[in-house]
Amino acid sequence: MTEIASAVGDAAAALALRHAGLRVTESRAAVYEALAARPHASADAVFASIAHRMPRTSRQSVYNALSDFADAGLVRRIEPAGRPMLFELRVDDNHHHLVCIQCGEVEDVECVVGHAPCLTPSDSHGYRLQAAEVTFWGTCPACAEGTRP
Q1: Which of 26, 28, 35, 94 is the residue whose CA sits 20 to 30 A from 47?
Q2: At a CB cut-off of 8 Å and minimum separation 6, what does 35 contact?
């Protein structure tokens, strides 16, 4: 990353953290930048992406930052069944996800039908619905064609 791109990334991270009411630290900024570069990342993937430039960072500090981000509404947790928890910065809408059953690739998919929460249950049991989480499982094009390395 160039110095200019790094400075822009640092500024965006600092702004987002402050806007969420979180204290800006080097570790938190690095976690935010890692998620900006790789949506749908696991905590371990985030740690791996920042460990080379921040060797004193621990997995626990990454887990703590992600938990703080989730509590502040800065990230969205995605919990595909049988897979590690994933995190993304896209929190301002009610989108859903496609997950490849072979390689685990995750893609965003816009709201299924109509207005949020996109789906209407057969019985809301009196709940005032705000959101729906839908995960579609299938095989991505690269796996289906056998071209995934």
Answers
A1: 94
A2: 41, 46, 75, 87, 88, 89
CB atoms within 10 A of CB 88: 19
84 in Cβ contact with 42 (< 8 Å): yes
3-state secondary structure at position 77: strand
Q: What's the average model confidence in pLDDT over 127-142?
A: 87
Residue appearing with tokens 């965003």: 108
- Alpha-carbon distances of 41 from 23, 37, 67, 76, 99, rounded to whole Å: 22, 9, 14, 11, 13
Specify the 3-state DSSP secondary structure of 142.
Answer: helix
Structure tokens, 42: 């696991």
Q: What φ, ψ does residue 49 adopt, rounded to 5°?
A: -75, -20
**CA 131 to the chain's CA centroid:** 17
> What is the average per-residue pLDDT within 1-29?
77
- A 10 A CB-CB count for 92 gives 8
What is the pTM for the complete model shown?
0.81
Residue type, 117: P
CA distance 128 to 146: 44
Exposed, middle or buried: residue 122 (CB in 10 Å: 0-12, 13-18, 19+)?
Answer: exposed
